[in-house]
Structure formats: C-alpha cells, structure tokens
C-alpha cells in the first residue's frame, strides 16, 4: 500500500506550485480581457493583481489540503489493516474452537489478555509504544477532538503543526491549544509519508516480536 501511495498517488500533487502560478496567470488574463467601461477599466490593475494572486493561493491551498487528506486517510487505513490482521490471527490461532464468531471476543483487549494468560505480554514489545501512538492518530483523524486527540497532543505535538511552520516562530501559534475539527479535510493533523513509514516498520517489528515470544514458551 505504501508503494501505491508513494509511486502512484502522491506524485500527482508534485506540480501544485506550478499549477497555482498558472492559475494566477489565467485569472490575470481573464480579468484583463474584461470589457472596458465608459470611464476606463472596470477593475484597476492593483485589484486585478490581488484577485489573481488570491486565485493562485486558493488553488494551492485546496491541493495541499487534498494531499493531506490522502495521507491522513492512509494513516487510518494502515492502522486498521494491521488491527484486522491481528484479529485474524487472534481468531485463527488464539481463540478456542467455538469462539471465533463471538463478537465480544473480537478485540485487541481480549487478544492481549489471552496472550498474557500464556505468558506473552505484547504491551512489553518495543513496537507497542509506536503502535499505541498510531492508534491515537487513527482515532483522532476519524473523530477529531476527543480523548485520543488529547493523548496524541502530548505524545506527538508536532503533528498538529504544518511542516512548513515547525521550524518557524509562527509555529507557536499552532502549539497553543491546537484544535482538531476536520482532519479528514486535510486540516489540523499534519502527518507525512515518513510518519507512515514509521508505523509500517513498527508493524513488521511487532510480528517478529510476537513470533519470538510465542516460540519462547514452546
């Protein structure tokens, strides 16, 4: 999935700055071609230039938000794909013969408890702290402000600041009680591809740690 995101989807946003500049030129030409009134141009040159720049900024902002929406959506998908893979293992290898279709048993909580009963504490895995952060991230992107968002603001405060502002004094504006309203609209939560790579590495590490832990009790 990450290769699809990196190689096929995100490259479509590589030219948004050029597109924005083209939008400026297009808008300027459209305004300039408007008919001239009896007493001169309908719109003066400075106003026309401002309108053209606004059109360019709006296009760039819309495309940037769309790119962020795509990445935020992948964060949700990747986390829940891992969760489903874990629960598939849980149903096939951990639950008893008559239990795989009992809804109340199909949770990470039960999976964790059942493994602990045989001496495997997955919460002690090195991967678990990273996976827990991404659980908060997925919930925050889905539900906006709430308990998960409050926890995530403490764990990864930089994710609530656009990357272009993280090393800028203006970034402090975002650090002050960040509000999360519409992360699925590409706003308020700003993870990037390298953050998703971190999660994928943690899931791979998790399975390695789980195999090793199970092998050690046999």
Question: What would you say this structure looks like, in words?
Answer:
This protein is an all-alpha fold. The protein is 64% helix and 2% strand. The chain contains 8 helices and 2 strands, in the order H-H-E-E-H-H-H-H-H-H. A two-stranded antiparallel sheet has the order 1-2. Helix 3 (45-94) packs across helix 5 (126-143). The longest helix has 50 residues, at 45-94. It starts with a helix and ends with a helix.
Features:
elongated, 218 residues, 8 helices
Overall strand count? 2
Shape: elongated
Distance between the termini: 34 Å
Low-confidence residue ranges? none
Major beta-sheet overview? 2 strands, antiparallel
Q: How much strand content do the residues show?
A: under 5%
Main structural class? mainly alpha
Query: Widest sheet: strand order?
Result: 1-2
> What integer is the average pLDDT?
91
Radius of gyration: 24 Å
* Count of helical stretches: 8
What's the helix-strand series?
HHEEHHHHHH
Helix content: 55-70%
How would you briefly describe this protein structure?
This protein is mainly α and 218 residues long. Helices cover 64% and strands 2% of the residues. α3 runs parallel beside α8 (193-216), α5 crosses α6 and α5 crosses α8 (193-216).
């Amino acid at each position: 999935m990450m290769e699809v995101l990196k190689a096929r989807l995100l490259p479509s946003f590589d030219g948004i700055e050029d597109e924005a500049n083209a939008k400026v030129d297009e808008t300027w030409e459209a305004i300039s071609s408007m008919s001239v009134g009896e007493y001169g141009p309908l719109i003066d040159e400075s106003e026309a230039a401002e309108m053209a720049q606004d059109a360019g900024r709006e296009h760039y902002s819309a495309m940037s938000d769309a790119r962020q929406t795509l990445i935020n959506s992948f964060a949700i998908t990747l986390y829940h794909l891992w969760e489903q893979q874990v629960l598939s293992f849980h149903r096939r290898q951990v639950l008893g013969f008559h239990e795989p279709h009992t809804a109340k048993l199909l949770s990470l909580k039960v999976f964790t408890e059942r493994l602990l009963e045989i001496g495997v504490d997955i919460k002690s895995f090195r991967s678990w702290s990273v996976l827990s952060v991404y659980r908060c991230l997925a919930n925050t992107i889905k539900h906006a402000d709430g308990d998960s968002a409050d926890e995530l603001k403490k764990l990864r405060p930089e994710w609530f600041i656009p990357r272009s502002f993280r090393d800028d004094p203006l970034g402090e504006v975002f650090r002050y009680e960040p509000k999360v309203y519409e992360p699925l609209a590409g706003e308020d939560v700003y993870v990037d591809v390298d953050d998703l790579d971190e999660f994928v590495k943690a899931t791979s590490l998790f399975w390695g740690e789980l195999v090793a832990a199970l092998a050690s009790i046999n």
